[in-house]
Amino acid sequence: MGYGQRRLEFSLHKRELFASIVFVYALLLGGMARAAEVAPDMVVDANVASVDLIAYVQTHIVAGPIDADPNIPKYNRGRDFGSWRTQDVKLTTGCNRTREAVLQRQADPRYPTTINPATCRVTTGLWHEPYTGADVYAAKELQIDHVVPLKNAYYTGGYAWRPAERCHYANFMANPFHLIAVNAHENMSKGDRSPDRYMPPSATYQCEYLNNWMKIKVIWKLSVTHEEATAIEKDFAAQNCDPSLRFAPTGEINAQRMAASQPIRSCEEFEKKGQVTPVD
């Protein structure tokens, strides 16, 4: 089943109403209060079968531009998130750097994937690229996209994390939707833009993209901007997205949060050594 036709199927035994949940969108006098820090995270309740992703978006809004808070140190990609790291899980090829791991995971297993043994870099394979819907055979035509970009994650909560946690975010492989191989041109066009300024050109993938974006925000407890929240709701309706994509199983979210709280070993080393290297 291709990216353009896939729809995530969730087992929704109960859909609880969250009428009792009241969040306050706060503004601090002389500065901005980040709603994600002010509002309790009641939307992820172990007693409720599923998480309402749009409800989370609606109740974790930060006022103003995400990079306007003078109390947050300016974002520096290499310093704050580091480079691709070595994954804890060893692949049969022995090439465990995050970029190679994502390419190997996402490649069509029915087509041979080749790796340069001298550099441990994936060179060819078959990838069903989701943003354009095209098939790609050369790995050099792909970049690994952080679906919620590093800069966005930094200013919506990641600035407060340990360096090892930020590095872990940049290399997170506990699910198949946090990091994905995409058309290099599209990835550069996207940059650090959120859904109010960028959506993949493949209309058949846009609902899945929104679902993935929201799940990442929930897993990592990140806030959103007013523009971002408005665009997500508008596009979700405009694309007539399957209502099930508005929800995610609570157990899945909590399991992902547990994985997010446990940085891989190479990220712990990154923190200890204070390495500053670019993400290529």
Structure description:
With 280 residues, this protein is of the alpha+beta class. The chain has eleven helices and nine strands. The strands form four sheets. It has a three-stranded antiparallel β-sheet, covered by helices on one side. The chain has a two-stranded antiparallel ribbon with strand order 1-9. α2 (53-59) crosses α8 (206-219) and α6 crosses α11. The longest helix has 14 residues, at 206-219. Mean pLDDT is 85; it is low at 1-40 and 276-280.
Please summarize what this structure is.
Helix content is 33%, strand content 12%.
Spell out the blueprint of helices and strands.
Elements (H helix, E strand, L loop, with lengths): L34 H4 L11 E3 H7 L1 E2 L14 H5 L16 H9 L7 E3 L4 E8 L6 E4 L3 E5 L3 H6 L7 H8 L8 E5 H7 L15 H14 L4 E2 H13 L8 E3 H11 L4 H9 L7
Helix pairs in contact: 2-8, 6-11
Count of helical stretches: 11
Helix content: 25-40%
Radius of gyration: 19 Å
Low-pLDDT stretches: 1-40, 276-280
Query: How would you spell out the order of helices and strands?
Result: HEHEHHEEEEHHEHHEHEHH
Tell me the major beta sheet: 3 strands, antiparallel
Beta-strand portion reads 5-15%
Principal-axis shape equals: globular
- Please give the alpha-carbon distance between the first and last residues: 30 Å
| Secondary structure category | alpha+beta
Count all strands and give the number: 9
Mean pLDDT figure: 85
